[in-house]
């Protein structure tokens, strides 16, 4: 992955930091709406509301992730001090690619699922256009992929957080501090 280093900066820009933590909050909300929908009976207003919020927040993740990519490729990445071994940087790059694939791919899969199911695609008062014509069997197949990727997402997000904490508390480098909104 392209990384433009800026030896003078010790932290990411305020915009990059803000978008990172906003993404975390959005992902927590997206997963929570799916996990908590089960407290409502099928077909109830509560369950439908949770699903609508899941759709809208998921599409918001898509928008924020796209903006994050623009910021990532247009601004410098502060170097980690002390520099980690090359294998760790390669693993971190692969993890970031996987996380961006999750943040972009999952909302698109959700949009495709709703489209193929013939359901509206709500987005904060607007309705987005369908990306596919109605095909219930295809909707079911895409939904299965979406749900499998969502399960994988738990592991990706958990590994990302664990790596940041490991670097902070055990390696004691600047990996996590570069992304904190406050001084550590």
Descriptive labels:
elongated; 184 residues; 3% strand
Secondary structure blueprint with pairings:
Layout: H1 14-36, H2 45-74, H3 86-117, E1 121-123, E2 126-128, H4 136-171
Antiparallel strand pairs: 1-2
Number of strands: 2
Structural shape? elongated
Helix content: 55-70%
Structural class based on helices, strands and sheet pairing: mainly alpha
Beta-strand percent range = under 5%
What does it look like?
The chain is mainly alpha-helical and 184 residues long. The chain contains 4 helices and 2 strands. The chain has helices spanning 14-36, 45-74, 86-117, 136-171; strands spanning 121-123, 126-128. A two-stranded antiparallel ribbon has the order 1-2. The two termini are 27 Å apart. The model has no long low-confidence stretch (mean pLDDT 94).
Compact overview of the structure:
The protein has 184 residues and is mainly α.
